[in-house]
Amino acid sequence: MRIAIPKETHPGENRVPITPDAAKKLCRMGAELVIEAGMGLGSGFTDAEYTDVGAAVSNDRNALFSEADVLLRLRKPELAEVAMMKSGCIHISYLDPFNEHELVEALRKQGVTSISMEMIPRTTRSQKMDALSSQANLAGYVMVMLAAAKLPRIFPMMMTPAGTLKPAKVFIIGAGVAGLQAIATAKRLGAKVTAFDTRPVVAEQVRSLGATFLDIDLGDTGETSGGYAKELTPEQIQIQRDAQKDAIAESDVLITTAQVFGRKPPVIVTRDVVEGMAPGSVVVDMAAETGGNVEGSVPNETVDINGVTVIGQGNLSNEVCRDASQMYSSNLFNLVEDSWDKETNVFNIDFEHDILPGCIITHGGEVTNETIKKIQAGES
Ligand code: NAD
After folding, report:
1. This prediction's pTM
2. Which position among 58, 94, 130, 297 bears the catalytic label?
3. Positive or negative CA dihedral for 122, 125, 131, 135?
4. Which of 287, 318, 233, 358 is nearest to 16 (CA)?
5. Which residue of 20, 159, 242, 339 has the lowest C-beta tally within 10 Å?
6. Distance CA 6, CA 220 (A)
7. Can 2-129+325-376 and 136-314 be said to share one CATH topology?
8. How many angstroms separate the CA atoms of 323 and 135, rounded?
9. DSSP conformation class of 106
10. Can 130 be counted among the known catalytic residues?
């Protein structure tokens, strides 16, 4: 099978879908690999590094799309790119299928087998393919770095002849993959960290990192069978907002990472609460691009609210693109290898597989994913 990897074209995107290391493994596996010229440059990988391991390089972007049996990518395709794909082509990338109705419909019509990296089930066996986790992990680290760079204070306690500096106080809301990494990073820098999450199971994980868990009684919260948080009722959100107020007011840094899978992120910090923080404090809202956890955060901008710096930067793992590329590339390779038939050199689309059916969105002219099918039909 011919696997093609076009260059990412989104402005500012420096991550690449496949590193030379993974390219080598794909070639060894028996794939005919072709990359677009300059595909790896965003993360510092030259074309020569790919040709050295057996890949071909092409300058003809249209041919990459029209001749590929498998397309490996980072970001979702443009509609014009879908129109160039062969019927039966397998396209693997982030897809945002909950929101991209027109794109899902175009992929279906074109007969493309589209696989969404966001929809890989969160099982133990699929961890090695889980790009949401690998990128969120790096995002957690980056958020703390961004906050530390803006805060007019240091994170650790410092006892010197010139006096004692108290450790910075960091409050983290949402302790999933990104939040837990943010906690660990802030702790390593010496900050005093408190965190909150609606899933009770998280409290122990927070404490094991040496942080304090803020106990808020929200009644029944629980989690879905997939391990995700359930959406809170408006009453529960209000209880949470009230109970967090004091912890936020006394924090130097607030980092929010709260998400509810497939839904808009909850607004859990209102503008008056941000205004209640001391001037110079820093807020990082990881959800700014998709609606925001913090009222007043602006996607991809840093704004000042009453002397508080509010960072709404998106695509956080792009800040550490070399490592982000390595991890995403590993996730992609592991996904492909898992379904690669080494006898016939074919990516085997198997609806009995334990992982694939959950993340295949379209196949054979149908929307095969049940959740996305309902959304496309306007039922959800
Ligand atoms: P996510 O990005 O969907 O959400 C981030 C966090 O926000 C979650 O911890 C969620 O509970 C929390 N949250 C939602 N509403 C909130 C609110 N109002 N206030 C505070 N916090 C709120 O989550 P994720 O990081 O992608 O992880 C989701 C789950 O999947 C977690 O249980 C994680 O441990 C699990 N997971 C499992 C595997 C695996 O077993 N392979 C891999 C990765 C993640």
Report:
1. 0.95
2. 130
3. positive
4. 318
5. 159
6. 47
7. yes
8. 9
9. H
10. yes
Of residues 87, 127, 208, 380, which has the active-site annotation?
127
- The structure tokens 């503008």 sit at 271
Distance from residue 223's CA to the centre of ligand 1 (Å): 9
126 is catalytic: no
Among 93, 116, 126, 133, the one annotated catalytic: 133
pLDDT, mean of residues 327-336: 98
Residue 368 pLDDT: 97
Whether ligand 1 lies within 6 angstroms of the CB of 122 is answered as yes
- DSSP per residue, 34-102: EEETTTTGGGT--HHHHHTTT-EEES-HHHHHHH-SEEE-SSPPPHHHHHHSPTT-EEEE---TTT-HH
Topology of 2-129+325-376 in CATH? Rossmann fold (3.40.50)
Element (H, E) at 326: helix 321-338
Atom of ligand 1 nearest to the CA of 232: 18
Q: Where are the domains of the chain?
A: 2-129+325-376, 136-314
State the architecture of 136-314 in CATH terms: 3-Layer(aba) Sandwich (3.40)
176 touches ligand 1 (CB under 6 Å): yes
Atom of ligand 1 nearest to the CA of 259: 4
pLDDT for 380 equals 65
Distance 198 CA to ligand 1 centre (A): 9
Closest CA to 273 of 251, 292, 290: 251
Q: State both tokens at 213.
A: 């868990």
